Amino acid sequence: MNEPETILLENFCGDLGLEIVFAGRGRLTLTSYSVTRPGLQFAGFFKYFDSSRILVLGNTEYEFLRDLPQDVRRERIKQLLSFSDIPCIILARDLPVLQELIEEARLTGCPILRTDKMTTVILNDLFFYLNKHLAPMLTVHGVLVDVSGVGILLTGHSGVGKSETAMELIKRGHRLVADDSVIIKRVSDELYGSSPETIRYFMELRGIGIINIKNMYGSGSILDEKKVDLVMELENWDEGKTYDRLGEGTLYETILDVKVMKHVIPVKPGRNLSIIIEVAARNFRLKSMGYDAAQELIMRTIGR
Predict the structure, then answer these.
(1) What's phi and psi for 7, nearest 5 deg?
(2) Annotation marks residue 141 as catalytic
(3) From residue 17, how far is each of 90, 93, 200, 233 by CA, in Å?
(4) Does 245 qualify as catalytic in the annotation?
(5) Among the options 27, 74, 116, 180, which is catalytic?
(6) pLDDT score at 247
(7) Burial track 20-32 (b if 16+ CB lie within 10 A, e otherwise)
(8) Which one is catalytic: 73, 117, 133, 162?
(9) What is the rounded CA–CA span in Å between residue 295 and residue 301?
(10) Engineered SS bond to 193: which of 144, 207, 232, 278, CB 3.0-4.6 Å?
């Protein structure tokens, strides 16, 4: 069972383009990635029924209900809605709402929603929605930026220059996703980062204070969410440490059981970190397409 997430009904319907027929309790508590079409339940089979799932009624379930005698139809609907933890019932294809369904829903508070989408389409929409909202997540200290389409998570100790580097990248036309605190979710074995709502678009620059990136540089300078493709750890230059110069040894960082490519970038006066990060982003894209400059150099020099 996943950690429950409670969502206001109006937000849920707004995200998925659903009509509220009956608001009921006005909120949904989501715990399951799965969605059920309750045909078996309307036939009277409730063994193994998982009432934590959203229920979707398509043509098949609707016509089956309509063909039942009125007293049987009411009894089946009443038995279904006796499970008080059903998040909601969604009717696809703009199907009319049966009177018995509304009357029983009023007694239990179960929201009744409707969409003009085909059943398979709304099932697909719900799959992606639930996977996103119920995904495992954690919050990390860092800065997430979109550099030439590559999501780069800047990490490192406080004061190493993460925000200042991100600021320079924004001035060069790249986009900020989150500063200081990054919420990372694992969705289908990929990581997506966003900012906590309370600090979204804000950045702290030591000596200056708090600034609003969206207001200062426009909506083109920010992004609400981005896939985390690359981790770049900034650390103060250590003269006694040997840093990778050829890029032969690939480092990875594991976040929520997902391995992400990582670079450790030494910081010292005179190094232009924004350009280094731009180059790293472009190099990442080249490697993703199968080109490795280090391997080509090795082949040219010692691979003949």
Answers:
(1) -125, 135
(2) yes
(3) 12, 13, 25, 40
(4) yes
(5) 180
(6) 61
(7) bbbebeebbebbb
(8) 162
(9) 10
(10) 144
